[in-house]
Amino acid sequence: MRKVVLVTGANSGIGLALCERLLAHDGQIQLCLACRNMQRAEAARLALLASHPESQVALLQLDVGSVRSVFQAAKEVKLRYNRLDYIYLNAGIMPNPQLDIKAFFKGLFSSNVINMFATAEGILTQKDNINSDGMQEVFATNLFGHYLLVRELEPLLCQPDSISQVIWTSSSNARRSAFSLEDIQHQQGTEPYSSSKYASDLVSVALNRRHNHQGLYSSVICPGLVMTNMTYGILPSFFWSLIMPIMWLIRIFTNTFTLTPYNGAEALFWLSLQKPESLDPLAKYHSLTSGLGKNYTQPHKVSEETQYLISSSLTQPQHHILASNFSFITCYFHAKSA
After folding, report:
1. Where would you find the membrane-spanning parts of this chain (predicted)?
2. Looking at the predicted structure, is the pLDDT value of residue 337 above 70?
3. Active-site residue numbers?
């Protein structure tokens, strides 16, 4: 039986690289590229079929930042397929990035340079916007739209006597310091990208606690430092031309500089080869590349502080903020779309 795989944000970068790797490994899968821009999605589809002409590659219009689009896309998926084996939640945005140039150059010539590039801690902020649904745009796109998609596709993901996987693309920029349960949309802060990625780590654990007994397993990956359109958008192009030689030099001494989308997709691809029930639900799986260019995946256990936050937000009634907020927002939009 052909496996059914859905990938959001599949028309470029890590998403497209993942699709290429999946088809190279198993050309029999039914691959669905879920993208906002259908023109770019069709170009990606044709590129994949040029390399794998016998493969089944379908398109799905999906803007995870729009609740209406998520509902419509989920409805379409349920009409096309009777099951889902893998859903890769890879789409994401980082709008209006603001780089602290002074802090950047200070860090560039310090012992903290590797961590600075890997996490962007202390040098990168973003200015978020309100979307058409009245939510913070980054929260809606990077987290809530994906969460809603999974909830809507539960009938396909939670099939009797079958196993399915939900795999989130998180980030090394996902930091506890940027996240607050009392402000899950990050309306009051300046690091919505970091907040949304940290929240996806929490939601993945929540999905495991809710659905493992139904055969649905959720995992989170970190692609490392990858040069994608999002990354290039942080600095002017001439700036990257100046610092890229430094970055390739640093790569010799660290394994977190994956740099290419193919390398960054390593953990995503690796997870497709594992038995989901054998994976650690409290681990983030990192794509790593050695100084000699060898790709591999390594799990990193979430911190004790994060484990406590997960436990308190999901099990203690007085702190049941994460689950209750998501349930409230989901119910609200269900009623609105009815």
Report:
1. 230-250
2. no
3. 193
Predicted structure pTM score: 0.89
Strand pairing report for 30-35 and 4-8: parallel
As given in the structure block, the two tokens for residue 317 are 């009634």
- Predicted confidence band at 318 (pLDDT cuts at 50, 70, 90)? very low
Three-state SS string over the chain comes to CCCEEEEECCCCHHHHHHHHHHHHHCCCCEEEEEECCHHHHHHHHHHHHHHCCCCEEEEEECCCCCHHHHHHHHHHHHHHCCCCCEEEECCCCCCCEEECHHHHHHHHCCCCHHHHHHHCCCCEEECCCECCCCCEHHHHHHHHHHHHHHHHCHHHHCCCCCCEEEEEECCCCCCHHHCCHHHCCCCCCCCHHHHHHHHHHHHHHHHHHHHHHHCEEEEEEECCCECCHHHHCCCCHHHHHHHHHHHHHHHCCCCCCCECHHHHCHHHHHHCCCCHHHCCCCEEEEEEECCCCCEEEEEEECCHHHHHHHHHHHHCHHHCHHHHHHHHHHHHHHHHHC
Q: Which are the contacts of 241, defined by CB distance < 8 A and separation ≥ 6?
A: none
- Closest by Cα among 88, 89, 72 to 80: 72
Which of 90-99, 131-140, 258-267 shows the lowest per-residue confidence on average (mean pLDDT)? 90-99
